[in-house]
Design brief:
This protein has about 170 residues and is α+β, with helices and mostly antiparallel strands. It has one domain. It has five helices and seven strands; from the N terminus they run E-E-H-E-E-E-E-E-H-H-H-H. It has a five-stranded mixed β-sheet. The chain has a two-stranded antiparallel ribbon with strand order 1-7. Strand 4 and strand 5 form a beta hairpin. The longest helix has 19 residues.
Length: about 170
């Protein structure tokens, strides 16, 4: 957990007003949360904190690249990543992080660890289906894709040769 200490913001000694912090994220942060869906990452994060008398407003902006494996071809590629997150921090009787837009710290707290928010912001902003850009534009050539094309053509031959005559009559109505 000592690694996560670098993502702590000690707001107790800060004056009211705007403050900025910068972080460089590495894969180790995600490994500590048992997330290993990507190979590496280079993400720069800028945190803007506005301290008010009774609450904190935080704005997290990140930009960088994440090396991911394509779900179709399993080829790795650098995915350009950009995401934002805004949330407020209030003070109450006990810690509560049930709401993504409001974090409640116990009264008397003077520091905030944003590692959980950074992790969630980045992981939740990734696409569900990760496709190599070379597949989309047709420039990627790999053994996996050529095998998939062979299987697709064999499947099309089998399905085209066996047709139900009842459906053929219905197709004529078009």
């Amino acid at each position: 957990m000592q690694y996560l200490d670098r993502y702590e913001i000690n707001f107790g000694g800060l004056n009211e007003g705007k403050h900025e912090f910068e972080y460089n994220l590495e894969k180790k942060l995600f490994e500590l949360f048992n997330y290993d869906e990507f190979n590496s990452c280079k993400i720069f994060v800028k945190v803007k904190l506005i301290k008010k008398s009774n609450l904190l407003e935080l704005s997290l902006c990140c930009e960088g690249t994440i090396n991911l494996n394509c779900h179709i071809s399993n080829e790795s590629f650098d995915y350009p990543h950009k995401s934002n997150m805004n949330f407020a921090v209030k003070f109450g009787p006990e810690f509560n992080n049930d709401n993504e837009e409001l974090l409640v710290l116990s009264k008397g707290s003077h520091q905030l660890n944003i590692s959980q928010q950074l992790y969630e912001m980045i992981v939740l902003s990734l696409p569900i289906k990760i496709v190599h850009p070379g597949i989309v534009d047709g420039t990627l050539k790999s053994e996996v894709l050529s095998r998939l094309e062979v299987f697709q053509s064999n499947f099309n031959k089998k399905t085209n040769s066996k047709t139900d005559p009842r459906w053929d009559k219905l197709k004529e109505l078009k």
